[in-house]
Amino acid sequence: MINRLLSRKSLARTSSAPGKTATINFYNLGFCRFADLPGYGYAKVSKSEKLRWAELAEGYFHQTRDIRLVVQLMDLRHAPTQDDLQMVRFLTDSGIPCLIAATKCDKLNKTGRRSQEEMYRSEFAACPEIMVVPCSAVNGEGVEAILKRILSACDVEEKQ
């Protein structure tokens, strides 16, 4: 998703298997910095590795930082996991703005997608400040909306 957002093919390393990001990777854009943290969703790694990732993320968020926005990636094909929901609660309780990038929307047919989008909106209805954006790194759908929100959070005017 970082590559698609920044219109770069290979800035951020990618893999077809989830869980390849094992450290925090930073991307300095001048007007803001992206921090790519390890995910926890569907990675096939040991419990101890997932625990290490959780501690890494917790340490990152508990340091004093000017975090303007967290873009949390969730696979639209699946319901949010307990870990996803816990992270959203942590972010909202901490006053950190959050956007949910509901990825892989291109992998669903129209009926399945509509159903999943409704489920996501229902799941996060209690948090109206959270924007859920169906998106695809493959075809670029939703990327412009995510980028607009990032630029807004960074107080950067969008170039026409």
UniProtKB/TrEMBL annotation:
Residues 1-157 form the EngB-type G domain. Keywords: Cell cycle, Cell division, GTP-binding, Magnesium, Metal-binding, Nucleotide-binding, Septation. InterPro entries: G_ENGB_dom, GTP-bd, GTP-bd_ribosome_bio_YsxC, P-loop_NTPase. One of its GO terms (cellular component) is cytosol. One of its GO terms (molecular function) is GTP binding. The keyword Heme does not apply. CDD domains: YihA_EngB. Belongs to the TRAFAC class TrmE-Era-EngA-EngB-Septin-like GTPase superfamily. EngB GTPase family. This is Putative GTP-binding protein EngB. It comes from Caproicibacter fermentans.
